[in-house]
Amino acid sequence: MNFNDIPLHSTLQTNLNGLGLIQPTEVQQQAIDVILNGNDALVCAKTGTGKTYAFALPLLHFCLTDNSALEPFCCQHLILTPTRELAEQVASSIELLINNTDITVATAYGGVSIKPQKEKLKHGVNILVATPGRLLDLARTQSVKLSSIKSFTLDEADRMLDLGFKDELIQVTKRLPSKKQVLLFSATFSAFVKTFAYQIVDQAIEIEVSPSASVVSQINEEFFALNNLQKSRALAYLIGSRNYRQVIVFMRQKSECDQLVKELKKDGIKAASLHGDRSQGARNRALEQLKNNEIRALIATDVAARGLDIPQLPAIFNFQLPFKVEDYVHRIGRTGRAGESGHAITFVSQDDEFRVDELERLLDKRITPAWLSGFEPNMAEFDSSEEKKKRKKNQSAKAKARAKASFSVKRRR
């Protein structure tokens, strides 16, 4: 099947051809017709499979075939995303498709001034891509009216719920008209996601393109056993020896990102950090530096695990496994996108033992970390971390027992 076989507006067909997009991906094949027919849809597909255009193309078709005028402070189609980065990516992807049209697209997210966003909404827009918190800020001040929207799309719904946006989403849905098309896109279809979905939609066509926890097949996964103190040197070695020009390195904590940037610079590798404590301007600059090859490594927390789109990113590193193992799939989905091959390298320390067990269950495969030549782990150190915990626990128990015994003796005296 080609895009020409899908009944999309001719302008969209022309723009798709101009972008060199001929064949829709599997999720696009299954979802676009369903959405064009006006159905509500719950769509589950793994990251990097073209989900954005699966909902964007039908929405743009509706914009081009709808002659109704835009109303001040209103939007026709609302798209919610969990992060600023994803909002920017979705809007940028849509803007590639609207050449030679009058379609207007706006973004609204926190971390930047709200005034330009209010200004953009004054005359109304066809499509608004927003994060939940900033959308509610705009709605409460009547800077955006949600009572007349025609479609409501939740992108990365599972991530939205993971980040604790359920209450905000409920508040948003209460402001929406009862008659609207609802589209929910998610990388996983957990019971939690489905339960929430059917709170905001009565009936929907469910589309599940692949198992919810699957990994893109073009990604080569490697696991290395390392002591924690070896990780930064091993990272610098692998980036240099494999001549990676662009990589994303995932960490669990914001403070550790900044520290790793300093350590990599000592090894001659330019890097920048991306996490929630950095301003939106600083985050945008860091992304642009990576895209323009001004730095070789972007050190990020899971705020960047979804929503970043860097064409042909050769590799990502899991410097640490994520707090929630489900985020592993989203992290490595930043590479191996749109049919390209990619590498995902994960460092495993003794502290990660229980996370590896969880990841094996999630991916349904055995994980056996290899040793990286020249960085073989000190097994005494590997064992000592657990032994230290046991000793501390035993020492603590003994101390409590001694204190209790001493107290009893004093009482008897």
Supply the key terms.
seven-stranded parallel sheet; single chain; six-stranded parallel sheet; about 425 residues; alpha/beta; about 45% helix; disordered C terminus; globular; 15 helices; 13 strands
Order of helices and strands: HHEHEHEHEHEHHEHEEHEHEHEEHEHH
Helix content: 40-55%
Please mark out the parts with pLDDT under 50 across 5 or more consecutive residues, or reply none.
384-388, 402-413
Biggest beta-sheet profile: 7 strands, parallel
Oligomer: single chain
The fraction of residues assigned to DSSP E strands is 15-25%
Mean pLDDT: 86
Question: Helical element count?
Answer: 15
Number of strands: 13
Overall 3D form: globular
- Helix vs. strand class: alpha/beta
Describe the structure in your own words.
The chain is α/β, with parallel strands linked by helices and 413 residues long. Helix content is 43%, strand content 15%. It has 15 helices and 13 strands. Strands 3-4-2-5-6-1-7 form a seven-stranded parallel β-sheet, with helices on both faces. It has a six-stranded parallel β-sheet with strand order 8-13-12-9-11-10, sandwiched between helices. Helix 5 links the parallel strand 3 and strand 4. Helix 2 packs parallel to helix 3 and helix 6 packs parallel to helix 8. The protein is globular, with a radius of gyration of 25 Å. The protein starts with 9 loop residues before the first helix and ends with a helix. The C terminus is likely disordered.
